[in-house]
Amino acid sequence: MTAQISNKFIYQENDFDVLGYSKDLEFSPRDYGLRPVALHSALWSGYYYELEVVNNQLVIKNLYINNSENDYPEILGVLPDDRKEDLGLYVYLSVNIPLDYSGKVLLGAGFINKYYHHMGYQEPYAYENLFILTFRDGILVEGEDISKKAALEREEVDKDPLGYMEKEKSILSEYIENAFSLDIDGYYL
């Protein structure tokens, strides 16, 4: 199993990884005539995106995708760049797909390599900077810095790394499911 490429979020002019959502974002490339397919094991979904708040509205600013039909239709007046980026994906730049999301988004920046694990998504405590953003109907209503909570969890992990990991992996099927989940219910909330 391979570590997955995270969706991205541009917040306060900084790049963050999206670590999870309190509820599904309800975005599907299929709604735009695309059928994403995995290009490699680090991106099983076949796509990822960059979120940003533009004019007070949450949008998918850029969409990176591998389409099964190798046909890339126009989305909101935007055609994909015909040059594939490093991962071999086509990119819809500045497509700005509006989202009416109501919920929380967990963001992380400053990944600490010693906490890397090679399966699924990285743990939130593995980031120096954590924010929880709250949206209502696609409008940002609150941003909270929760970096101190992550630092406290790292202290717990560092006290007994093997014991902590053993506890996390005690039921293998749950561990695997959690590693590939972006659900943050109860996580830092």
Note down, in words, how this protein is organized:
A hairpin with a 2-residue loop joins strand 8 and strand 9 (139-145). The protein is built from three helices and nine strands. The protein has a domain at 27-98. It has helices at 147-159, 161-168, 172-179; strands at residues 8-11, 14-21, 47-54, 57-65, 90-92, 97-98, 103-111, 127-136, 139-145. The protein has 189 residues and is an alpha+beta fold. It is globular, with a radius of gyration of 17 Å. Strands 1, 2, 3, 4, 5, 6, 7, 8 and 9 form a nine-stranded mixed sheet that branches. The two termini are 29 Å apart. Helix content is 15%, strand content 32%.
DSSP summary: helix tally: 3
The biggest sheet amounts to:
9 strands, mixed
Tally of strands: 9
| Overall pLDDT level | 83
Order of helices and strands: EEEEEEEEEHHH
Helix fraction bin = 10-25%
Look at the helices and sheets and give the structural class: alpha+beta
**Strand content of the residues, in percent?**
25-35%
Shape: globular
Report the end-to-end length measured between terminal Cα atoms.
29 Å
Pick out the low-confidence regions. none
**Gyration radius, to the nearest Å?**
17 Å
